[in-house]
Design brief:
Blueprint (H helix, E strand, L loop, with lengths): L3 E4 L2 E3 L5 E7 L8 E7 L6 E6 L5 E3 L8 E6 L2 E6 L8 E8 L14 E2 L3 E5 L2
Parallel strand pairs: 2-11
Antiparallel strand pairs: 1-3, 3-8, 4-5, 4-9, 5-6, 7-8, 9-10, 9-11
C-alpha cells in the first residue's frame, strides 16, 4: 500500500543541477530498495540508479555515470543531478520493493511507483 511521491523537478538550464526527492507519506523508505527511472516522450521507462536496503548503489545507465548520484537521508531517497544535458529531459520516477534480491534495472521488479516529476532542460 506504499504510495510514493516524486518531487523536485522543473525547468533547468543545460549544465545546471537539480535534486529530486522520493518520499512516502507516513512511511520511511529505509526498508526499501529504491530505483530511479526516467521516461522521455515516446520512449520506455529507463532504469538509472538504485540504492538497496543495505545502501549499495548501482548505476544502470551509462549516460548518467559521473553526473547523477542516488542517496538516502532520513526517510527520503534523492537523486542529485549534476551537469544536466538536454537529453535528460524526461519524467523521473522512483520505484520501491522489499525483495531480497535488492536492486534491479527492470521496471517490473519494483512493486510501488510514484506519478513522476517532470524535468525539462532548456536554456
Amino acid at each position: 500500500q506504499l504510495q510514493l511521491v516524486e518531487s523536485g523537478g522543473g525547468l533547468v538550464p543545460p549544465g545546471g543541477s537539480l535534486t529530486l526527492s522520493c518520499t512516502a507519506s507516513g512511511f520511511s523508505l529505509d526498508p526499501y530498495n529504491i530505483g530511479w527511472f526516467r521516461q522521455a516522450p515516446g520512449k520506455g521507462r529507463e532504469g538509472l540508479q538504485c540504492i538497496s536496503r543495505s545502501d549499495d548503489i548501482t548505476t544502470y545507465a551509462d549516460s548518467v555515470k559521473g553526473r547523477f548520484i542516488i542517496f538516502r537521508e532520513k526517510t527520503t531517497v534523492y537523486l542529485r543531478m549534476n551537469n544536466i544535458a538536454a537529453e535528460d529531459t524526461a519524467v523521473y520516477y522512483c520505484g520501491a520493493n522489499q525483495r531480497g534480491y535488492g536492486c534491479s534495472r527492470y521496471e517490473s521488479m519494483y512493486d510501488y511507483w510514484g506519478r513522476g516529476t517532470q524535468v525539462t532542460v532548456s536554456s
